[in-house]
Amino acid sequence: LLFVISKPPIYGGELNINFQIKSVNEGLKLIKKFKKIKYVLKTRTDCRFYNPNSFLYLKNMIINFPIKKNNFLEKRILFSSVATCKFRVYGATDITQFATVNDMINYWSVPYYEDGLSDLLTNSKKPVIKGTPILSEIYLFAHFIHRCQINLDWSLKHWWGLLKEYFLVFDSHSLDFFWDKYDKNSEMRFLTTYSENYPR
User: Fold this and answer.
1) Residue 181: what pLDDT?
2) Residue 138's closest CA among 167, 172, 113, 157?
């Protein structure tokens, strides 16, 4: 078990996204040194997978759903179904991701929020495009697509098309996923929580 301790960025960025960018990149730098490691799972310390076959499940998802055409990914990047919202444009979760080491490094090679936001905005300083706020995981996904030289049109059609062609949303419940935050006693929160009216 290895821990990476790094110097935090001066500014946390919107919703402290810069801290995550820094810590994930420092961890990936260390993993890259181990040549035999091909895949990496990016998650949070307050998340757990209780299915003992979780890594086999995720690896098989990548193998069984290859990318047909692309020039910027080795294989699909997998996102957890928890907090990946169908109707939130470019809303790929940053809670749990699985990919090859190289693809994960490319995905997270994103500038700090205040430095990279201008790459996505045209003539407005307000971080909202077509009703979508460019915050946290939306910023990460959109900037990755931008760096891959794919035009962003900020529509659901484009978001769903990208998921179909290059990414994959896996069922978190298949991994017996547990997130020790918010309404943790509600196992199906964000999906089937009858006491709340979630718009997701």
Assistant:
1) 75
2) 113
